[in-house]
Design a protein that fits this description.
InterPro entries: AraC_E-bd, GyrI-like, Reg_factor_effector_dom_sf
Pfam family, one: GyrI-like
Strand content: 35-45%
Structural class: alpha+beta
Shape: globular
CATH superfamily: Regulatory factor, effector binding domain
Radius of gyration: 15 Å
Number of strands: 10
Protein name: Effector-binding domain-containing protein
Helix content: 10-25%
Order of helices and strands: EEHEEEEEEHEE
CATH class: Alpha Beta
């Protein structure tokens, strides 16, 4: 899939998350448990579709925040805390298709930033579209905060 990369200015987006520090080899087993815990400790107050899943990578350790975008009133409990996705100038792309192709989306943004002479600030995040039975229809937004 061709990834069209653009720059944009984004506002902070409120989230409900669990923060964790892990390793890249461990992360595939860690994120699902964290996300399940978030979903089990968020009580939605509105109707309709609920907030999209988010994963914010603050560092390359990785120090992560895994959770949901808050697009309607919620009550949170347990280990879940309120946070926000960063505000500012970003380079971003939209990946459509199975999650195993997300690495290509990240590579496209990194390469494009280098070609444009743009410096990445460090934090990056993914916003996952709502569930779709057909993996080819899954949409994931990939953002890199610019310095």
């Amino acid at each position: 899939m061709e990834h069209n990369v653009v720059t944009a200015t984004v506002a902070a987006r409120p989230t409900a998350v669990i923060a964790a520090e892990t390793t890249w080899p461990e992360y595939p087993q860690v994120w699902r448990r964290l996300l399940d815990t978030v979903h089990g400790n968020v009580v939605w107050g509105g109707s309709g579709r609920k907030g999209r899943n988010v994963m914010l990578y603050l560092t390359d350790v990785p120090h992560v925040e895994v959770g949901v975008e808050l697009d309607q009133p919620v009550e949170i409990g347990g280990p879940v805390v309120r946070s926000a996705l960063p505000a500012g100038d970003v380079a971003m792309t939209v990946h459509q298709g199975p999650y195993d192709g997300l690495g290509l989306a990240h590579e496209a943004v990194i390469k494009w930033c280098a070609e444009q002479g743009l410096r990445r600030a460090g934090p990056r995040w993914e916003i996952y579209g709502h569930h779709h039975d057909d993996p080819a229809q899954v949409v994931t937004e990939v953002y890199y905060l610019l310095a």
